[in-house]
TrEMBL record:
This is Threonine synthase. The keyword Lyase applies. GO terms for molecular function: L-serine ammonia-lyase activity; threonine deaminase activity; threonine synthase activity. InterPro entries: Ser/Thr_Dehydratase (IPR050147), Thr_synthase-like (IPR004450), TrpB-like_PALP (IPR001926), TrpB-like_PALP_sf (IPR036052). It is an enzyme of class 4 (lyase). One of its GO terms (biological process) is isoleucine biosynthetic process. The lineage of its organism: Bacteria, Bacillati, Actinomycetota, Actinomycetes, Propionibacteriales. Keywords: Lyase, Pyridoxal phosphate. Residues 89-390 form the Tryptophan synthase beta chain-like PALP domain. It comes from Kribbella steppae.
């Protein structure tokens, strides 16, 4: 059976979405056909991909490429996805963070370091999945609203694939993220306002312009599945088992919910033992609507106006906020927030102990980990994984006034001795 994309004449080929069989509403459970759809026709709830998985073995996965396409059977992508030009993200390091663990009083800590992706953030994963859907749906413009990392990933992936990109960002975005998007040659549009204003504009354009694939709007069901590969890699790199605790930064909340989905799918498929795990979310206090809702015991998230240095997490009306609450409560985890001062301290702590320079989102995660331990919400004896979602070179301003030369001396040995540097 072939499917036809809504309001176009493009025919979707068999197997375009791999083992994906339908779209399912996360609110009411109603099913929709696979295609360029992202809102439930029954209740307007968000859609996600449903699957009919065949038997999948560890050996089959391990024989795949050293990138996210080793998990092709678990993603909404065709079997030949790797043959199309893409940035080949994924299979990043899982670092045994013994130094940081000892400093914080943890028995075992790992850092999943996604700064090693092609554009130095986890967004390369979701964008690769969205690019496949864009191609299969016959859409011609690859676009997004972004707080920076997604802008980088979309512009780079579009350049690699030879497709037009149009990226919308807040006008006051960090300069390094602006440069590392514009360099790929696509169309970069600065919008007056914050991310929520940019996202609203993108949604309006997506509803009016045919053939535009906004990765985190109208192809979001396929885009968001890319975050599952973080869960798959963590489990595989741990020797095909699940960690006991994981701390994840929260912007829209999609990454956290999809890591949970990935762990669950691995258990159902028998690729890992379905052991219990706790999921913790990390936000900056200046944009912490999910953490506030968690503390207040609410099931809904009240939008806020962001005011934080952690701009990549500055989404005041997070689409997946209610689902983040569900995951944290179901697994016995929590959602916490930390001040901008703590964010900077978290950046420096990870750099000093493990030699990893993280961006502000990673500073949020490290600082939240510390706070969770100190408050007794996180078990120091349980094996823990934290996500480093991006590279510190993107947010240099956060630490620029905190670091520099310890001393300046003349170019002589006597000056070296006099400065007490032996």
């Amino acid at each position: 059976m072939s499917l036809t994309a809504d309001s176009t004449t493009h025919t979707i080929r068999e197997g375009a979405f791999g083992n994906g069989t339908h779209l399912s509403c996360r609110a009411c459970g109603a099913k929709s056909p696979l295609g360029p759809f992202y809102a439930c026709m029954e209740c307007f709830g968000p859609l996600e991909v449903g699957y009919d998985y065949p038997a999948i073995t560890r050996e089959q996965i391990e024989a795949g490429p050293k990138n996210i396409w080793r998990y092709q059977p678990l993603l909404p992508v065709p079997v030949d996805v790797a043959s199309f030009p893409n940035t080949e993200p994924g299979y990043t390091r899982l670092i045994d963070a013994g130094n940081l663990a000892r400093e914080l009083g943890l028995r075992k800590l790992w850092v999943k370091d996604d700064s090693g992706n092609p554009t130095h953030s986890f967004k390369d994963r979701v964008v690769a999945s969205a690019l496949s859907a864009t191609r299969e749906l016959g859409m011609k413009v690859f676009a997004c609203p972004s707080t920076g990392n997604l802008a980088n990933a979309v512009a780079a992936a579009a350049a690699r694939a030879g497709i037009r990109s149009v990226v919308f960002i807040p006008h006051d975005l960090e300069r390094p993220k602006v440069i590392t998007t514009a360099v790929y040659g696509g169309t970069l549009v600065a919008v007056e306002g914050n991310y929520d204003d940019v996202n609203k504009l993108a949604s309006e354009i997506a509803g009016e312009e045919e053939g535009w694939a906004f990765v985190n709007v109208n192809v979001r069901p396929y885009y968001s599945e890319g975050s599952k590969t973080l869960a798959f890699e963590i489990a595989e790199q741990l020797g095909w088992r699940l960690p006991q605790q994981v701390v994840i930064p929260v912007a829209s909340g999609s990454q956290l919910t999809k890591i949970d989905k990935g762990f669950t799918e691995l258990g159902k498929l028998g690729l890992v033992d379905a052991t219990d795990y706790k999921v913790y979310g990390a936000q900056a206090t200046g944009c912490s609507p999910v953490a506030q809702a968690f503390r207040d015991g609410y099931d809904v998230v009240k939008p806020v106006k962001p005011d934080t240095i952690a701009k990549s997490l500055a989404i005041g009306n997070p689409a997946d906020g209610p689902y983040v609450l569900d995951v944290a409560r179901r697994t016995g985890g929590a959602i916490e927030d930390v001040s901008d001062e703590e964010v900077v301290e978290g950046i420096q702590l990870l750099a000093r102990t493990e030699g990893i320079f993280t961006e502000t989102a990673g500073g949020v995660t490290v600082a939240t980990l510390k706070k969770l331990i100190e408050s007794g919400q996180l078990d120091p004896e349980a094996e823990t994984v934290i996500i480093n979602s991006g590279d510190g070179l993107k947010t240099l301003d956060a630490v620029a006034d905190r670091v520099g030369p310890k001393v300046t001396i003349p170019a002589s040995y006597d000056a070296f001795v006099k400065a007490g540097l032996q």
